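Record type: ASSEMBLY
Status: queued
Input:
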Amino acid sequence: MQSPTAPQPHITVTGLTMAYGSFVLMRDLTFSINRGDIFIIMGGSGCGKSTLLKILVGLKEPAAGTVLYNDVSLWEVPPGERDLILRRTGILYQSGALWSSMTLAENVALPLEQYTGLGPRDIRELVSLKLALVGLAGFEDFYPSEISGGMRKRAGLARAMALDPEILFFDEPSAGLDPVSAHLLDELILELRESLQATVVIVTHELASIFAIGTNSVFLDVDKRTMTATGNPNDLLRETKDPSLRHFLTRGEE
Amino acid sequence: MSAETATSPTKAAAGQELARPDASTLVVRFGGAFALGLALPGLEELRGALEAEPRPARLVFDATDLTRWDSRFLVHCRKIMDLARAAGVSVETAGLPAGALRLLELAAKVPERKGAARTATREAWLARLGGRSQAAWQAFTEVLDFLGEVTLAVCNLARGRAVMRRSDFLALLHSSGAQALPIVSLISALVGLILAFVGAVQLVAFGAQIYVSSLVGIAMIRVMGAIMTGIIMAGRTGAAFAAELGTMQVNEEIDALRTLGVSPMEFLVLPRLLALVVMMPLLCIYADLMGVLGGFVVGVFMLDLNPAQYLAATWDSVALANFWIGLVHSAVFGVLVALAGCYRGMHCGRSASAVGQATTSAVVTSIISIIIATAIITVICNILGI
Ligand SMILES: Nc1ncnc2c1ncn2[C@@H]1O[C@H](COP(=O)(O)OP(=O)(O)O)[C@@H](O)[C@H]1O
Ligand SMILES: [Mg+2]
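Status: finished
Output:
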C-alpha cells in the first residue's frame, strides 16, 4: 500500500519451534515483522497463537530457533538486556490482566513509577492522558471489577501504552466484545499506530479485523504443525491455493 | 512516542519561547526534545503572557524546532490548552506535529464521564458510627443467612437430594485427612512431650513421677488433642477452603454454578463440611495417641519409669468419658473450621487482595471460635459433672 522506502525488519523470527515439554506445537516458523506493520498472527483455536506471542514477549523460551529484535537475539542476551528490550514493548493480554486490587489509575501508573522516576503529579497527568486516549477519562478511581469487559480491554491498552512502547502486542483484543466495540477497538489501534508510529502485533481470528487493519500476517496451520503463508491478508485471500488457508479466510464458505 | 524515542542521541532539553507577532496573537514556540526523563519548561511565563495587556485573542503553536516528543509533550500541550481556555483565549492547534494533533483529538473525543470521578468525603463521627453499626448488623445477618443455607443444604443431603460430586468429596477427605497426618503427628507428639516435661518438674519433687502418665493422658485425650488438631486444621485446611472458594468467586465460577441452578452451598460447602466433620475426630484420636506417645518417651527415657507401668497408669487414670468429650470437641471444631473457611470464601470480594483477606479472616475466625467453643463445652461438662 505505502512505504516507498524498503521495509525495515523490527522483529525477525527464524526456524522457531515451540513446544510444551515433548509436545511440539509448531516448527520451522520463519517470518519478519517490519517497522510500522500491523502484523496479524492468525490460525484456528488452539494452534499456538498465544504461545507464539508468549515467546515473542519473552515469557516462554522457544524449543529451537531465534527471535531477533533489531538484530539482537532475545533469547541469547543476558536477562538484564532482555528486560531492556522488552521495556520498549507493551502487551494487552487476552483477558485484560489488570491487577484487580488496584484502581485503573494505579494500574497505568505502575509501569511509570517503576521506570521513569517522574513525580506523582506528572504521573497522574500522564495517566489521565492515557486513559483519555482510550476513552476512559474520569474512570481513574474505578477498580477493574467495577467496569465492563470492553472497558477492561481498553484500560489494559492504556496500561500497555504507559511507557510509549515501540511495539504493541495484542492477544485477541476483540474476543468477548460486541461487534461495535470490537470495531471501535480496531479503529483505536489503527489510530494509535498512525500517530505513535508503533509496530503492532495482533493475535486474532476475527476476519473483519484481519482484513480491515492487517498489513502483514502469518498463518499457523494446526494440521501441518507449521506456518503455511505470510504476507498481506488481502493478497493472501486473492492469491492462495492452499485449501486450509482459503477455508480459514473465507470462513469455510468457499 | 515517535519511533526514534529510544534511539535518538540528542539530549537537548525541552525549550519553550513565547512571542507576540501582533497584538492579538500569542505564539508558543517549542524546541528540543519533550520526552520521559527530561525536564519540561514551566507554565508561569505563559500564565503571565495570557493575562498581559493587551490581552491576546488567540494562541498559536509553532513546533518546527521540536526534535522529538512523547506522551509528556501531549500532557504539556493539554495543560497549555486548559490554561488558554480558562483565560478565554482561543487555541489554534494546527502548528503541532500531525501525530500529536491526532492523539490530542483522540483524547478529547470521549468526554469525561460526568459523576464517574470519585471524591473522598469525610463523614461526621455520628454518621461513621451509624455506618459501622449498620455494617456490623449486616455482617451478622449474613452469617445467619449462611448458617440457614447450610442447614437447608444438610437437610437436602439427608433427603438424598443434594447435588454434590462423590469424587470432590473423596478428594477433600484425602486432602483434609491423610495429608494432614505428618503435621498432626509432629505437633501432638511435641505437645505430649512438653506437657510431660512441665509436669515432671513439679511431680518429681514429690516423688510422684508416675502421675506424669495421668497428666499427659487426661490432658491430651480430654482436650489438648482436639484443640491442637483444630488449630492445625484451621491454618491448613480452613485457609485452603477460603482461598479456593474466594478464587472461584473472583473468576465468577460460583456465579456460573448458580446460573446453572446448582446450589454452591450443596456443591461446594457441603462436601467440605462433611469432610472435616468426618476427618477431625479421626485425626483427633490419632493426635491423642501421638501425644500419649510423646509423654511416654519422656516418662520412660527421662524419668526411668517402667514402660508397662506407665501404660497401665495411663489406662487406669483416663476415664472413657474423657475420650468421648475429646471426640465431641473435635467434631464441633470440624464444623467451625469448615464453616469459617467456606463463609469467608463465599463472601470474598472480587480481587486478588480480597482472597488474601478472606484467607486471613478464615484462620482468625476459626481459631477464635475454637477457643470460645472449648470454653463453652468445658463449662457445660462442669455443670453436668463429667
Ligand atoms: N501451559 C501449557 N502446558 C501444556 N500445553 C499447553 C499449555 N498452554 C497451552 N498448551 C497447549 O498448546 C496449544 C496452543 O495453545 P494456545 O497457544 O493458547 O492456542 P491459541 O492461542 O492459538 O488458541 C493448546 O492445544 C494447548 O493445549
Ligand atoms: Mg489464545
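Annotation: Chain B touches chain A at residues 1-3, 5-6, 36-37, 70-72, 74-75, 78-79, 98-100, 102-103, 106-114, 116-118, 250, 349-354 (CB under 8 Å).
Annotation: The CA atoms of residues 191 and 305 of chain B lie 20 Å apart.
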